[in-house]
Amino acid sequence: MSEFSAVTEATAPGKIILFGEHAVVYGRPAIAAPISQLRAKATITPSSSNNCIIIAPDLNRHDFLQDLPDADALARAARLVLKAAQLGPPPDVTIHVKSQIPIASGMGSGAAITAAIIRALAQYLDRPDLQTNEMVSALTYEVEKIHHGTPSGIDNTVVAYEQPIYFVRQSPQNQIDPFKVAVPLRFVVADTGVRSSTKVAVGDVRRQYNQQPARFAHIFDECGRIAKIARQAIETGDTQQVGKLMTENHAWLQQMTVSSPELDNLVGAALQAGALGAKLSGAGRGGNMIALVEDDAGETAVCAALQRAGATAILATILA
Ligand code: PMV
Question: From the alpha carbon of 154, which atom of ligand 1 is closest?
Fold first, then answer.
């Protein structure tokens, strides 16, 4: 019987990137926000099996921790906490993972699952020092490296802090500014239904940057400039400006070749239905787009248009 006996659980939210994806990998500012209504949850239960078991029905997973390679994200998350806690052999527990966040669609499902496992395990081991936002973010970052080699750090940050974040990747320490939204922003998030790999999209942008450094540096600069003004617009409640900047950001993401016909189709449909702005969100090539709407009527019109345009899932969310 383990000395840690209570059942513990922890959750972490999904996220959207409002401004600056991809350019953020190259040190330009970006803005991300949590989607608190979509969550990943990890539950730790003491087990009598003399093993640490990881169960994730959504991912078709039921494994002994000891059998998993370190490149496995779920195993890596658990091992990082055990290592940080300086625990010898893993405790005899079942780690049960469930998520409402769609996989490979730019909504941070991997980071949220990791953060939930880290928080739940740290809580189970009674280690408050491993449950701070900074620590959860830092450990989640280590796991994110499995998904693609050069994560900017924005996903783990927003998922761990669960606040709108203005983020700049830099050495020796990233700039992380949680900030206030002056006037609630209403977003519609719509899924193309196309699954896309962040690693592939980030790798393609890297290749193009290497081939055309000046052109891509300019594109990244423009995305960073937009993110900077967008922060001011969000902090002063200039919703019209936020929308305009989103659509502008989408055009630069098209230049990076990370949009797709499906994303452009949904962005176009949302704008035509009266959205204040629209863009892809996350790594692109598939996954989700976001549209900013003014009010109830705007939300209804944009949701209907996105449905007609073929969105496979639609979610309305308010960032306050
Ligand atoms: O994993 P996604 O789809 O949310 O994309 C992450 C955002 C990128 O800027 C494309 C990559 C990164 O590490 O910031």
Answer: 14
